[in-house]
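Page 47, continued from p. 46.
Same chain as before, 242 aa.
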Amino acid sequence: MSERWQFFILVAVAYVLLPFSRWRKRQPARGKPGILIVQTGKIGDVVCTTPIFRAIKRTWPDADLGVAVTAFVAPLLSGNPYVDDVWLLNGEPGLKGKLKLIRQIRQHGYHWVLVFTPAAIGVIIGVLAGIPNRALTLIPQLPRLTRSALAFANHYVSYELRTSAAAHYCRMLNLVGSVECGDPRELFPSDAAVARAEQFLDEHVLEDGRMRVGIAVAAGKSNKEWPPERFGELASLLSINS
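Result:
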């Protein structure tokens, strides 16, 4: 079954369950909210999400925090002491795998799902997993699939142009309660990962002590790309100062 048909089936079931989800008024125990963050972005987006984890645990030390990401970026959350559970949005293939994920999330009894990107799957999971509070990021030109799922959210936060990702995520988190953000971005690499990085650096240092520098000149979206001439200026500066 194609991904598109799987999506349509999940949407149809979510519409059937939507009226019942509106009746659910499950309240968190004092100071113990269950929060599921859905981050469908790539490496940069996930790294920008990490300050939110610390802010949640500082505000609610007993909070149950789950983070749903793709398998590609899941290693970035390895060892993070503030994340209780990492859910893989594309873990097991097929509709059966998606239903298994939803069933497992439902067993956690989260009170909030915060969808940090305009991704329909986040609020669909929210309805099917019985999460009563579902917040979705809005952008000016929503993808068609996301527009079809707007009814599944009951809170919306519009992304403001030129706002940093971390600031937008903090605005969404404040739907749950008053939270102060501003913590640094942080990763917690394993000893093995650190060793691999050190080996890579050792292998790429020139004989005279200079290091090779690679520049990635593309971005996932055109509005995030630098003009080519700026990369040229940066390369010149690195060459002169090396």
